[in-house]
Amino acid sequence: MTFESGLTFFIAIFLFGITPGPGILALLARGMSQGGNACVPMAVGMSLSDVCYMLAAVFGLSALATHWGEVFVVIRILGAAYLLYLGYKLWTSSPTLDETDVPRLRGNWWKGFLQGFLISASNPKVILFYIAFLPTFMDITRLSGSDIVIAAGLNLSALLLGVVPVGYLAGRVRRYLRSAKAVKRLNRSAGGLMIGAGGYLALRG
Predict the structure, then answer these.
(1) Cα dihedral sign for 128, 132, 138, 143?
(2) Which site in 86, 100, 119, 127 is 20 to 30 Å from 79, CA atoms measured?
(3) What does the angle CA 7 – CA 156 – CA 63 come to, to the nearest 5 degrees?
(4) Which sequence ranges are marked TM in the entry (predicted)?
(5) Tens digit of pLDDT for each residue in 78-98?
(6) Which range has the top average pLDDT, 109-118, 127-136, 153-162, 184-193?
């Protein structure tokens, strides 16, 4: 992999990462309801899931998307249902001005990580994107082990650089709220985003 192709690959993945979709909607919802720090584990989970799909494309595992289609449909529906559930919990949560009392939905680092991983893993069409996308920047039939490591590192860092700030920007909104009524509106906005992400994922088919 040349420096030019690596740089172009990094920029393209960065733009891909911030493209609106179920992952970005879920990050916005989490940032608005729980703050920017709560978005970091979710962003890491989402990014690592994408890297797994990239590696699957590199190693020729795209057949899974064809021969195991029914399994992927089940995964997608379960992921969508989970997002809808989280959206409902946000929509109906009691307003609070104390960020330390934010949910019930906060959980621990690993819970956020698994949520993010599930959101990206629930979208098997990502692997088809990488199958069509990677040959534009590299000959995947001639990649060395070091090339694959570099590509995975560029992919992960570009995604994190793109999605983590999204969560922090959404988290800043909550700092300016001064009434329970405003917090309630924000929770409902975040819940609506999460429900939208679940519906988007369910209907993509």
Answers:
(1) positive
(2) 100
(3) 100
(4) 6-28, 40-65, 71-91, 112-133, 148-171
(5) 767 877 877 787 677 665 544
(6) 153-162
Q: 19 φ, ψ to 5°?
A: -65, 130
Domain count within the chain: 1
Distances 170 to 14, 28, 144, 159 between C-alpha atoms, Å: 18, 6, 40, 17
d(CA 121, CA 117): 6
- Rounded to whole angstroms, the Cα distance separating 148 from 135 reads 13
What's the pLDDT score for residue 153?
Answer: 94
The residue segments making up the domain with residue 83 are 3-204
Alpha-carbon span 147 to 180, nearest angstrom: 52
Query: What are the start-end ranges of the H helices in the chain?
Result: 3-17, 22-34, 39-58, 63-67, 69-92, 109-121, 125-133, 145-175, 180-204
pTM across the whole model: 0.70
| Rounded Cα–Cα distance for residues 109 and 155 (Å) | 22
pLDDT for 188 beyond 80: no
* 98 C-beta neighbours (distance < 10 Å), count: 7
Phi, psi (rounded to 5 degrees) for 18: -95, 5
pLDDT band at 46 (very low <50, low <70, confident <90, very high): very high
Which two three-digit tokens encode residue 70?
């029914």
pLDDT in the model for residue 45: 94
**What CA–CA distances, in Å, run from 147 to 5, 21, 196?**
11, 29, 38
Yes or no: say if 103 and 32 are a contact pair by the CB < 8 Å rule: no
